[in-house]
Amino acid sequence: MTMRRWMWPLLVLATGVVLYGITAVQNWGAGCILFILVALLGVSQDRKNIPWARYLPFGFLALLFPFVMYNYAGGFWEHVAGWQTKSVHHLFKWNDLFNSIPFNDGSFLWVWQPEWLTRFIGWVYWYGFTLSFWTCMIRSFFTKDVKKMLHYAFAGFVLQVPLILLFYNTVFLQEVWWVKGLPDMLNPWYRAYTHNEYLVWVQNCFPSMHTSMAFAMLLMAMREKSKLFRWTMGTYCTLIILSTLYLKIHWVLDVLAGMLFAYGVVKLADAIMKLLSWLWRARLQKRKQTQDLAFGAQPRLAVTDDHTKKGTSPQ
């Protein structure tokens, strides 16, 4: 009884620590927190009628699962990028090819680029990769829907990171501004790397993972009941996709490939969730059949025992 009494506050505290940890990994500021709070408006329209005491143990685990991946993703990605630079011999090198395709550089979005707009679009891009995913995850946590949380997780980091490495280890393609010898539009507000650091970070462009993450979350968000949430995520995710072109980072074909990749990952996540649901229902059905057999055999045993005591056999 004492353990149960302590488990609830510890679980609430652990959940709070994870939620704080999500904001701390990339040093989210007030703008990111405010965006999440706006996305939480109308969450009751999608919330399940489940007591928090029953939901929280499973909700905490569903939140912790992708957070662990996210917390160590930065270091992991640095190792991968460094290893690629030293060891990987890409099958395809597309810098010259992509640079030769008219309008593939997204220059149609470079017409008007005042500093205030560039800083805002830079904010959208810099935090968009993680903020789009975690906004959906945190909101689904407050809908008290573990299945939905797992669905978002699979459509996001869990499937996208390992699958996209197949492309990044095969195709060598660098960012638009680097190939064209233009200034980095994220410098100095969001990044200021050395030449060697840039060599690591300007590769891995095909497909655009900013686009794939944003588009996957957009597709998933469109399934929610809250109109406000659909509009919020639809607008934000669209801005993330456009920011990759505005900031001269991704090529148009990168973006299109990222959208196709995201669509495929969402469909794969759908299939995985259907399989998990089927396995869960099969398990419950098997358990019910076992219980029915056990209860069905009990009266028969009682009758047999009764006749045995009387020295007679059942008719």
Could you walk me through the main structural features you see in this protein, from its secondary elements to its overall organization?
It is a single chain. The protein is mainly α. The chain has a single domain (2-67, 90-305), classed as Vanadium-containing Chloroperoxidase, domain 1 (Up-down Bundle), CATH 1.20.144. Helix content is 74%, strand content 1%. It has helices at 2-25, 30-40, 52-87, 95-100, 115-142, 146-168, 176-180, 195-201, 209-221, 227-246, 252-310; strands at residues 92-93, 171-172. This is Phosphatidic acid phosphatase type 2/haloperoxidase domain-containing protein. It holds the Pfam family PAP2.
Tags for this entry?
two-stranded parallel ribbon, globular, about 325 residues, Vanadium-containing Chloroperoxidase, domain 1, mainly alpha, disordered C terminus, about 0% strand, transmembrane, 11 helices
